[in-house]
Design goal:
The structure is a single chain. The protein is α/β, with parallel strands linked by helices and 300 residues long. 51% of the residues lie in helices and 17% in strands. Strands 1-6-5-4-3-2 form a six-stranded mixed β-sheet. Helix 13 links the parallel strand 5 and strand 6. The longest helix is centred in the last third of the chain and has 18 residues. The model has no long low-confidence stretch (mean pLDDT 90).
């Protein structure tokens, strides 16, 4: 169906842009199709104009034109209004990779999924960039956990249990390449017992991902605990064919300057992210991402 809409969009675009047709002719075409094929839906005048927009949006992009045929028309109607080709490509690839339904894609876009991933990419530490696995577009600067219905005031145990008991919902936010290995995952080092809040395995990265939860703002001393767990995982749990483990400190908040200082000499592959229990301010995240783009341009 998407291919058909592409062909109709191309035809209408050529006719309208060459001044052969006007808006009234598009309406006549819609009426004609609906009269000839009353059981065929999706050919209102408004939808035919969308087909024209669809063709004109992707026709000059060699990467997106073939990719766009792999998702449904309802997905395209959500993605086309994105402001940049980069954002459209991101959501097309995300829809394909994660097999997102229309409702799930809408949630990801409303939660500023693109901006949060781009912010995380921009803040990757040198250690993370040197890993054998490519982690670009895998993690986020902020995780939105509104699907867990957590109250604003909660304990770390509440957060951990809510995630463990709602893995399907959590993986919509975290990514479907992640497989849950356990809550309070046990480790024994020397004669002492320890436990990781949440342990996952990522199939694409071929490594374990340890998550430590903090219901307070990030503090530099939190990193020591996470680094210790990563060392224990790689020494005692990791298999030979697997890549080095990655750690995430998921905090209630963070100061980006403090994070930058803390990570500058950190030798473990760790990320610092915060979490929200409600959908974030999309405009604010977009502004932060644009500021980073401008700062990167200034460094060149």
């Amino acid at each position: 169906m998407v291919s058909l809409y592409w062909n109709i969009g191309e035809y209408v675009s050529l006719q309208v842009n060459s001044n052969i047709w006007g808006k009234s002719v598009v309406k006549e075409l819609s009426d004609f199709i609906q009269k000839k094929e009353p059981n065929v839906k999706g050919f209102s005048a408004q939808n035919i104009w969308r087909m024209k927009q669809f063709y004109e949006t992707y026709k000059d992009n060699e990467k997106l034109a073939p990719l766009g045929r792999e998702i449904s028309w309802t997905h395209h109607k959500l993605i086309m209004p994105c402001q940049t080709a980069e954002e459209r490509e991101f959501y097309i690839r995300l829809s394909i990779k994660e097999r997102l339904s229309k409702r799930e894609l809408e949630r990801q876009m409303n939660s500023s999924y693109f901006e949060r991933v781009m912010l995380s990419n921009a803040k990757l530490s040198p250690m993370l960039r040197e890993l054998p696995q490519d982690i670009i577009n895998t993690f986020k600067d902020t995780y939105v956990l509104e699907l867990l219905n957590l109250p604003e005031l909660h304990q770390e145990s509440d957060l951990r249990k809510a995630i463990a008991q709602n893995i399907t919902k959590f993986l919509l936010e975290f990514g479907r390449d992640f497989a849950f290995m356990g809550e309070e995952y046990p480790l024994q080092v020397g004669n002492q017992d320890f436990s990781i809040d949440l342990l996952f395995y990522n199939r694409s990265l071929n490594c374990m991902v340890a998550i430590e939860l903090k219901i307070e703002k990030f503090k530099p001393e939190h990193l020591g605990q996470l680094n210790f767990y990563l060392e224990a995982l790689d020494r005692d749990v990791k298999k030979e064919h697997e890549n080095p483990s990655i750690g995430i400190l998921l905090c209630k908040g963070k100061d980006d300057t403090v994070v930058e200082y803390a990570m500058s000499r950190n030798l473990s592959p760790a990320l610092i992210a915060d979490y929200k229990t409600k959908l974030p301010d999309k405009a604010l995240l977009k502004e932060r991402w644009e500021q980073i783009i401008e700062s990167l341009k200034g460094e060149k």
